[in-house]
Specification:
The protein has about 140 residues and is α+β, with helices and mostly antiparallel strands. The protein has helices at about 1-20, 20-30; strands spanning about 35-50, 60-70, 75-80, 85, 90-95, 100-105, 110-120, 120-130, 135-140.
Length: about 140
């Protein structure tokens, strides 16, 4: 029994060392794969009311509400070393849904500029660092 175990270990060792080159090649190819990530952008508007909150039983002055902005245009620009992408074209664009959000998947890790344009409230932009295998969330409030 002991001899069989030693023989099995010897074959395993020989098998591992004989295909070490193939294993390294496969591992190198795997390491070369670019990891991707996603960014979710939320867009909203804070609405203020001068109505006294006492009218509804609160003891504050004024009320505020958060409205999610549907159909806001969101563009993502990849920043290259030393500044903004020279092409001037966004990597991807889209419109926010009824919940005021949009998710951009499969982005390469790196630095991006996100630009949000609302026909009613104007334009805002912000820089974001995207890391591999991380789901990021960024909120714009007009």
């Amino acid at each position: 029994m002991k001899n069989a175990l030693l023989l099995l270990l010897a074959f395993a060792f020989i098998g591992l060392t004989s295909c070490a080159e193939d294993s390294l090649e496969s591992q190198t190819e795997f390491e070369a794969l670019v990891q991707r990530t996603s960014v979710t952008v939320n867009v909203s508007h804070q609405l203020w009311s001068d109505e006294p909150a006492d009218a509804i039983g609160c003891h504050m002055s004024g009320l505020s509400f958060i409205l999610f902005l549907e159909d806001a245009a969101v563009s993502i620009f990849r920043k290259e070393e030393g500044g903004v992408d020279d092409s001037g074209f966004p990597r991807t664009t889209g419109l926010t849904n009824r919940s005021g959000s949009i998710t951009f998947a499969d982005l390469e890790p790196g630095e991006y500029t996100i630009v949000v344009i609302s026909s009613e409230y104007g334009e805002k932009s912000r820089d974001i660092q995207v890391y591999e295998n991380v789901e990021s969330l960024i909120t714009f409030r007009f």
